[in-house]
Amino acid sequence: MDNRATLLEQALQLFAQRGYDAIGVQEIVEHAGVTKPTLYHYFGSKRGVLEALINERLQPLIDQLANATTHANDVPASLAAIFQLYFDFAQAEPLLYRMQLAMWFSLPDNEAFQIVAVAAAQQQALLESFFVRASSFHGNIRGRQRVYAATLLGTINTYIGLWLSGAIQATPHIIHQAVQQFSYGIYS
Amino acid sequence: MDNRATLLEQALQLFAQRGYDAIGVQEIVEHAGVTKPTLYHYFGSKRGVLEALINERLQPLIDQLANATTHANDVPASLAAIFQLYFDFAQAEPLLYRMQLAMWFSLPDNEAFQIVAVAAAQQQALLESFFVRASSFHGNIRGRQRVYAATLLGTINTYIGLWLSGAIQATPHIIHQAVQQFSYGIYS
DNA sequence: TTCTCTCTATACTCATCGGTATAGAGAAAG
DNA sequence: CTTTCTCTATACCGATGAGTATAGAGAGAA
């Protein structure tokens, strides 16, 4: 089972550096110090490697998000918690987050996009249901869940992208500012 | 010269749909109805095709941006003009903008990223110099040009991404909202 | 011991990758 | 009527793409 973990780790390293399409199976197994049949034994295909990576290591983020979006009585507090959750996750798994971000912005017909799209849709759905719940407290949210969820993710990813590239620090003040900036779009 | 234009058009079509890495030279020439030496005659390499695409079709955006960022006496008006300019360009060249966006978010060691990075750096630089100029009117901008330029591009791209996916229309009201949302981050 | 099951390596498949050597077609210039 | 230059096709290059057939090594169970 050690080879399996090593393969996943090396694949993440390579995918996050040069992209899914640019990496060959041969390259992954060489970095992991094994041979191709070992990879195909555990994952079945190159696609299977990426799916395992997403399913196993991105799942905690989605679980936490599901938790943070169940209550919407205090919208600003929930928004702050959601931002914090994403920042914490990106700090714990910077390579994974960078890879997922690149794939999320890749094209619809691209294989990597289709794999990440499942996890992305889950996040979008959780946020939409959050805004639906919030709309019972804030009338002007009603009917705009989809746009709000998307702009929220967009704002979060803009800030995390800045942090990943070293342009900003992940201070409480920055998170507060990001929440405020997003909130302005809601209550206007 | 017709074959050259057809090659560029088909390459854009394919790159924007499945990504630079996922598309082979063979596929491009087949869609264009020519053979490989024709492509290599005009562009020298696969990379050359993408460079021609960026240099020739993305340049108008950068020229317009250079124009819109020269004056910073009226910051809100300039910001609105910049947003409008990006929206107009994305509407005129949706495929190109989608492709550029995907490559911008792809990984640093990826070939496509490195090609687009030049154009991206130009935009970033123009926006930074705009904020430097604006700082003589708004003191709290000083020293934060880099972050502001990056979050401005992030906000713009979030909204254009939403428009490209059909989630929002490009109405004057939406543009106004985007400007307001971004501005909140500045003056806070 | 022997049988089975999980895991991994050697060595291979065929398709596609980016790129090119060579040559011919056609137009313009002399 | 030949020379020259631009453009394009046929046919190829070695390298690499994803994926696999076969077999052996080692552990656990009988």
Structure write-up:
Two copies of one chain form a homodimer. Chain A starts with a helix and ends with a helix. In chain A, helix 4 (46-68) runs antiparallel to helix 5 and helix 5 (75-92) packs across helix 9 (172-187). The longest helix of chain A has 24 residues, at 111-134. Chain A has one domain (54-187): Tetracycline Repressor, domain 2. Chain A is mainly α. Helices cover 77% and strands 0% of the residues of chain A. The first copy, chain A, contains nine helices and no strands. Chain A has helices at 2-18, 25-32, 36-43, 46-68, 75-92, 94-104, 111-134, 145-164, 172-187. The mean pLDDT of chain A is 93. Chain A binds a DNA duplex (30 and 30 nucleotides) through residues 3, 24-26, 34-38, 40-42, 45-46.
How many domain regions of chain A? 1
Largest interface: A-B, 38 and 38 residues
- Architecture of chain A, CATH level 2? Orthogonal Bundle
In what range is the share of β-strand residues of chain A?
under 5%
Q: What's the story with the biggest beta sheet of chain A? A: none
Shape of chain A: elongated
Class of secondary structure makeup of chain A: mainly alpha
Quaternary organisation of the protein chains: homodimer
Order of helices and strands of chain A: HHHHHHHHH
CATH topology of chain A: Tetracycline Repressor, domain 2
**Name of the level-1 CATH class of chain A:** Mainly Alpha
Detail the topology: elements first, then pairings.
Two copies of one chain form a homodimer.
Chain A: H1 2-18, H2 25-32, H3 36-43, H4 46-68, H5 75-92, H6 94-104, H7 111-134, H8 145-164, H9 172-187
Helix pairs in contact in A: 1-2, 1-4, 1-6, 3-4, 4-5, 4-7, 5-6, 5-9, 7-8, 8-9
Chain A binds a DNA duplex (30 and 30 nucleotides) through helix 3.
